[in-house]
Specification:
The protein is mostly helical. Helices cover about 75% and strands about 0% of the residues.
Length: about 425
């Protein structure tokens, strides 16, 4: 008789270690996210590239919206032979993380002002590998932690990736002032390898009770058709997907243009790094903690509504910032409030998505839902540069406030007709 693998559910492990592990994996997840987003756009803005070109860099991250296409392969295909002994989750996660560190190193050595195409290609590769890493980390988190600890696991994950975004965002920006962009980004490579070391320490979740070894058609049905069919069979599936698409729409439009917006208002890299640095990190961690408390005490639905309302109010600060340029203290307030709103949103939204997943199709369904959530950023968000140029900065950011309202209306429908489970919280 084989010995059962220790899990949180059967009491075989202390709880603090798994939370530390998911926090470290969250760090690995967040590091390339800011690098291929805000940091890359600021790098291009400082190279004096046009707004339209900067806006369309969001399309590099289309992998975050399409990752559900190859998530079934990671769910069904065995890892490459050198890593197969690590299991079905870690066996894929480790080689992806190693390739990601190499891609970040390649991106650091490019020169966007002279070879923009190469910079964008490597930025796209970083985003693709980052999205693939997210598939496996999310699958590990949902499969390993019991339902009662999903709230705590989500909080740890968010704290990790927000801390990493501080480093690959404001940290790289601040270091670029003295070291230059190339050296500052290159320092992220050893930090990205922290994720690989963490993967080796993680326990492998127990595999499914049955593994399909039938024909290719049968495996495709189980890997792709069954997860989608199971989700679409639920009441309100279309409404839920619409809400997932709309949740980050306003923030997506606003966030893409922040780097050139701050530059337009006359803020230098040192001030931007300060405003988006430690104070913003404390704010996002506080927001995440509050979001976790709201999920535990008031339920996922109430937490989602609070997150949307606060997120919309935070968007209203960007036009105010435009009316008071060259004032660093106002930039700091805007950054802190926006980060606090993001923390609440992340805790509530990630917990909501996790609760929608069937454990038989964890990787595929979570990849689908999180991909849909990124659609606004990777498609409409790419037009933000064109919109900002056409409307002007103040009217553009007023437009982002209006674009956040549809998500609130759809959530009202969901809470009335298809309410989520009240709590997915730590005991």
């Amino acid at each position: 008789m084989t010995r059962q693998r220790p899990t949180l559910a059967n009491g075989g492990m202390k709880r603090i270690l798994p939370i530390a592990l998911i926090t470290a994996l969250g760090f690995s997840s967040g590091l390339p996210l800011a690098l291929s987003g805000f940091t890359l756009r600021l790098w291009l803005a400082r190279a004096h590239l046009p707004l339209a070109a900067i806006g369309f860099t969001t399309n590099l991250g289309i992998a975050y919206s399409l990752k559900f296409l190859w998530a079934p392969a990671l769910d069904q295909i065995r890892p490459p032979p050198p890593f197969r002994s690590l299991g079905r989750r870690r066996g894929w996660l480790l080689p992806i993380q190693l390739c990601l560190a190499a891609a970040i190193g390649g991106l650091a050595l490019t020169h966007p002002a002279h070879h923009l195409a190469l910079t964008l290609i490597l930025g796209g590769i970083v985003a693709f590998l980052s999205a693939s890493q997210d598939i496996m980390i999310d699958a590990w988190r949902i499969e390993f932690f019991p339902l009662t600890m999903q709230g705590a696991a989500t909080a740890g994950y968010v704290w990790g990736y927000r801390g990493a975004m501080l480093i690959s965002g404001s940290g790289v920006i601040a270091l670029s002032v003295t070291l230059g962009w190339h050296a500052a980004i290159l320092l992220l490579v050893p930090l990205q390898l922290i994720g690989a070391a963490t993967t080796l320490l993680c326990p492998e979740p127990a595999p499914p009770e049955t593994v399909d070894t039938g024909s290719i058609a049968a495996r495709f049905r189980d890997a792709v058709i069954a997860p989608l069919a199971e989700f679409w069979s639920r009441r309100g599936a279309a409404v839920i997907l619409a809400f997932v698409v709309l949740f980050y729409l306003g923030e997506a439009l606003a966030g893409v243009m922040l780097a050139p917006y701050y530059t337009h208002l006359g803020f230098n890299r040192a001030i931007i790094a300060l405003a988006t640095g430690p104070a913003a990190l404390v704010a996002v961690l506080a927001g995440t903690a509050l979001g976790g408390v709201l999920v535990a005490r008031a339920g996922v639905g109430t937490a989602l509504m609070a997150a949307l309302l606060f997120q919309t109010l935070a968007l209203g600060l960007y036009p105010v910032l435009g009316l008071h340029p060259h004032l660093p203290h106002i930039l700091l307030v805007v950054s802190v409030v926006e980060s606090f709103a993001q923390g609440i949103s992340d805790a509530a939204f990630i917990t909501y998505l996790s609760g929608l997943c069937d454990k038989h199709y964890t990787a595929t369904q979570y990849a689908l839902l999180s991909s849909v959530a990124a659609v606004a950023l990777r498609t409409v968000g790419g037009l933000s540069g064109v919109l900002a140029q056409a409307l002007g900065w103040i009217r553009f950011y007023e437009f982002t406030i209006v674009s956040a309202l549809p998500a609130i209306l759809v959530l009202v429908v969901i809470l009335r007709k298809y309410p989520p489970a009240r709590t997915i919280a730590a005991p």
